[in-house]
Amino acid sequence: MKKNLLLISILILFSLSPFLTSNNFLIRFLTDILIFSILASSWNIIGGYTGYASFGNVVFFGIGAYSTSILMSNTGLGFFVSMILGGIIAALFALLMGLPILRLKGHYFAIATLGVAEAIKALVQNLNITEGNSGIYLPPPEMSVDGIYTFFFYVTLIVLALLLFLTSIIFKNKFGYNLKAIRENEDSANSMGINTTIYKSAAFSLSGFFSGLAGGIYAFQQGFIKPEPVFNVLITIKMIVMSVFGGLGSLFGPLIGAFTIETISEFLSSYFLVAHTLFLGIVIILMILFAPKGMLDIFINIRKKGLSYFRKNIEEHRV
Amino acid sequence: MKKSLPFFNFVLVVFIFFCFSGNVVAENIIKLGSSISFTGKHSRSGKLYIDSYKLAVDTINSKGGVKVGDKTYKLKLIFYDDRSDSSESSKMVEKLIGKDKVDFLLGPYSSGITIPDSLIARRYRIPMIEGGGASEKIFNKKNKYIFGLLPEAGEYFKSTLEYLKTVKPTPKSIAILYADDKFDLSVGEGTKKIAEKMGFKIEIFEKYSEGQSDFTSVLTKIKGKNPDVILVGGHTEEALNITQQLKELDVNPKMLSLTVGPSESDFRKALGKDSEFVFGVASWSTQMNFKGYIFKDTAEFINIFKNKFKYDPDYHNAAGIACVSVLKYAIEKAGSLDREKVREALVNSDLQTIYGTIKFNPNGQINGTSIVLQILDGKVFEVYPNTLKKSVYPMPPWKKR
Amino acid sequence: MTLQILINGILKGGLYGLMALGMSLIWGVMNIINIAHGAFIMIGAYITFLLFNFTGIDPFVSLIFSSSIMFLIGYTIQRGIINLVIRAEIFITLILAFGIEIFINNAALMIFSADVRKVKVSYGASNFNMFGVTIPYVRLIAFLLAIAITIILFFFMTRTKSGRAIRATSQDLDGAVLSGVRVSRIYAITFGIGTALAGAAGTLWAIIFPLSPTMGGSLTLKSFVVTIIGGLGTMLGPVIGGLTLGIVESFGTNWFGTTFESLISFSILVIILIFRPKGILGKGKE
After folding, report:
1. Which of B171, C74, C176, C198 is most buried (CB neighbours < 10 A)?
2. Does B200 share its domain with B169?
3. Which residues of chain B have pLDDT under 70?
């Protein structure tokens, strides 16, 4: 009970941060954490729960970003409508893309999703409506400077809260149970009568919808987007790393992962102007070697097994 | 939930606040922030601005600094590396404003990065003066806080086309090759319009991907059509590759001109003899001489620059100096560090510097033109409108050199 | 002109094939997708650049050095790091490979700075004309070397004891273990050969194109496409895949514009994965 109270008070404090500080850069940083939390949690639905490790999820982020940008700058639609439409377009694309691609397994699925993401990026670079590779402007938010930062923080927080709420319902329901069955053994799931195609596609679309919303928020916040930053494979990698380190298939895992990785990243940036990405690479290597089950798992087990926990992880996986 | 987790989070929260603790502001310092390309594909050109910003600030400080009313202030530069990436640059500009609390902003290199950075400047109402972005797309968004020292991208090749009308025999067909970033899109579209109006035939009008390194496909197309003139809107790295691959495929236009590259000494060094006879454009050259604002005149600037940095300055360097010069001028004219007052002073600038006369159009871009350069005997000379050295047209074919 | 476009595609395709050969080998034998493959190509390119700039060794000659050094690097990385996660789930090995790629790219960025470099050989732009087609010498030589190396690999894998041990391990792991093959050593050798091939491709690349520390990413992606087109589990796959991609890109960019190159290659990747994941020649395991 005490532990939950502590957790809840931390969450409440976090939710009130725009009012506790006037440092806009800090609020922006927290908003970035929230955006990655959305992306990681979305990935978790298809990657963690369903066991289909997609390496192309950034495509939904990019589609959401570009849809929002095109709608806002070419039609009179406001931000919220454009953002939601962006999410819907991303979800529809996930559905379409899933039809042929979800039939693939393992490595082939991973590479195919990566291929689709790169192909869509290349397409966006060549279309006129997206202004090609040169970038597209969005109308600026009509707010005070402080208001802008507070606004984006809360929009992102609400989208994340919605995503977590939906995911927790799924997790406890037949839907989640079926996804888990697909992850454990898809052939048995099929023979048990579960329509794996429908459940996989639904998970993929849900993942796409929320990633698309995150993209729309990002685009409006930036005011100007280009294809490379919003379709960058590094974003997918970060999503996956955050989910794994937070603990795959757990509800709050991706959030913890997002918070940790982004904070480490920012800390490194401040002190190592040139070398910070290098250290990030080292962090990723060390963590995947020694803690592939996530940080939560470390905390549970380190007390019981001590340092041999790390050795056991490696022994399980080596040749 | 595990006991150690909240503690872990607490430690991380401490980290965050640690990272974001700002600096104590010292008295009588004006902080100038610049997020610019130390590394990445624009680093060669980025360095030109970094060197110039530093030289300008050092020179101003050594001569007494900036007078605001009856107080004297020293200038302080704060740099971050944008790694030639626009999203990184935006983040760094926000950091300069939020964490370092800079007073004014100096621009990055390239239009593609200047655009998002200028949007942040507008949001925070901080004047940004840049000498690295020429696309009209920077200035057509009613942004009152961005001031640019490079002339309009679409007009970069205007003087080149005028020059072509003076040579014999008059060339008829032109190939325009341009990258897909905002600057080169402007160059491509603008050049096509002017060229067609002047009666040239646009044989090839091809877009290529920014940062591309293999031009075989498009150069093969050009080889097939054999136009008289090839005009390239691109940045230095692309210019190097295109020139090299033109030789590889034995394509021999009568003139090859590139928007960026030929004026930089790096370009001539990298290509060696292959850079000979290549044409370029610039808003300034070392052969000009103007009375200076923080230097005595252009000649003194070139001397000091060469001694300090050991390479010949080009128009990027001169524009960088001009950025800091016009900022000092505006602050002193406004008699205050109030950003709105300084902004208004900038709008009505009329200043003579080593770079030339600085007067801004209502949209914030400088009222200026380009001159035609050619690389001859390993050095760069203006050949039009002033003939400081006689141009060589047509370019001798590769195999006959 | 059509002939020039075709020749352009073939020459580039040979280089593509060599690039993908290393990735295909590692993937086929160890079922690991080496995301860091492009980074290894980049290292090979820089080895050539440094040797050329500091000792004047001709880049073609430096092939021997870059391949050997890369073999050692690959062997060590495999033995030291990758061996530890071989039997883990896919995304664990993929993320490890990404971590290695980030590390290598940024180490190179710190050592060499992000500036673009070029190996400036005196014969760099020399070319000759045949049937109306201009062929740059370096591209032709690079093509011939790429084919030669592929043939050498073919003989190694089919005629030598180590080569046969490698193939046995990939076809039947348990059987190989039973017949006394030391699997961890075989894996390390295989990975070493894979990175040596990447290094060789890097050398050839450096002679024709400029280098930068971040050049690897797009080359890894290209290698995927070529590997998939040609098909896994076969030695000729990458060559066929490379030539196919080279020719399709050459004609495709001529018709649609050079900015369509990536769209063409990734569309082919996705289409092949959907309709014929085995690729042209593949006898792949799914």
Report:
1. C198
2. yes
3. 1-27
* CB of A222 less than 8 A from some CB of B: yes
In the numeric block, which tokens belong to residue C213?
């520390």
Note the pTM of the prediction, 2 decimals.
Answer: 0.88
Q: How many domains does chain C divide into?
A: 1
Q: What are phi and psi of B383, to 5 degrees?
A: -115, -10
Q: What is the nearest CA distance from B129 to chain A, expressed in angstroms? A: 19
Evaluate the CA torsion angle B188, B193, B194, B198 in order and state its sign: positive
> Is beta strand B66-68 parallel, antiparallel or unpaired with respect to B71-81?
antiparallel
Cβ contacts of A270 on chain B, cutoff 8 Å:
19
| Tokens read off for B153 | 């991208």
- Looking at the partner chain, which of A47, A132, A292 has a beta carbon nearest the beta carbon of C92? A292
pLDDT tens-digit series, residues C7-31: 999 999 999 999 999 999 998 888 8
Residues of B with CB under 8 A from a CB of C: 39-41, 43-44, 83-84, 180, 206-209, 212-218, 220-221, 223-224, 237, 240-241, 244-245, 247-250, 270, 272, 274, 398
Q: pLDDT tens-digit profile of A38-93?
A: 999 999 999 988 989 999 999 999 999 999 999 999 998 999 999 999 999 999 99
CA distance B251 to chain C (A): 9
Residue C110 has pLDDT above 90, yes or no: no
Q: Is the ipTM of this complex over 0.95?
A: no
A258 touches A273 (CB < 8 A): no
Does the pLDDT value for residue A118 go beyond 50?
yes
Give me the domain span that covers residue C85.
13-215
B236 belongs to a structural domain: yes
C-interface mutation test, from A102, A104, A118, A310, most C Cβ less than 10 A away = A118
CA C3 to mean position of chain CA atoms: 26
